[in-house]
Please model this.
Amino acid sequence: MKFPKLYSVVACAVAVCGFASCSDVTEPVYTKPDASTFKINTPPLQNQYYGLDENGQFEIALNGQPSYGFSAITQYRAEVSLTEDFASYETLTPVGTGTLSRMTFKDSDLATAMCVLHGYKTKEDYKDNGEEKVYFRGVAFIEGIEDSYVKTSNVVSLNRVQGYFAIPVPGYIYVIGNYVGDWIGPELENEQALKPYILSEKDDAIGSQIYYGTIDFGENAPLFRFYTALGSWDDNTYGPTGGNNDDNPVVFEDFKAGSSQLYPLMATKDSFSYPNYKGTLSFVADFSDAKSPKVTITAVK
Model:
């Protein structure tokens, strides 16, 4: 009959101990990280040739989380430079969530960074520099804590990196027609001659596959079709629906000054023909849906 009382005493003792242990728990305290202990690891293939590939990836690893005083979800980045002093640099964001200290990057992002650091803006600017030495340092931060931003105290390099031109530029298509009288053919050797007759994406909409442009046909009644790439008369060509794909025009007699036409496009050798209009045409060619491209054509007053 004394056992229940004994159990009660033990239970009370456990409860008291439990309360005491809870009171001893300390909240984690944030510490500004010490950069001297935050390192970037030397790449194991540092001295091997590495040719960047549009679909390739590579790894850069850090020695773990900086000394924040507690384990926290940390964001990691890498800075890349062409000089060891990082006088100018670009920041690379890893693939995925960015919360792993072993970071995976896209080759294409590094190629773009190298082009930016060289000052290349167009393909005409680009120079193939062969193998280059590229420097890296790591960055870490906790989102929402301003002074958590810290860079590695050391710098590493990949010593034999072959880049390529990777600056995003607006895409474009060609209008092939009678704007100068005789047609300039869609062959590769005519690329320079056709530059005034392209429709291009807007600078802030690269990759949209929506192309804009204005072309003056002068005193010629416009006759034309679209090419998404140069090569031959028969390939990559788009024109109006309703024809027979036999290199004959589809005639729009009602198209006159002030007219605007939204028209579906199809892969065809047939052309648009506006026999009752002369002058300038404005185009918005929308290829964003590959299955149903379309074009808006406006007769500029």
Remarks:
- Helices lie at 3-24, 107-118, 191-194.
- The first helix runs from residue 3 to 24.
- The longest strand covers residues 131-141.
- Residues 1-21 have pLDDT under 50 and may be disordered.
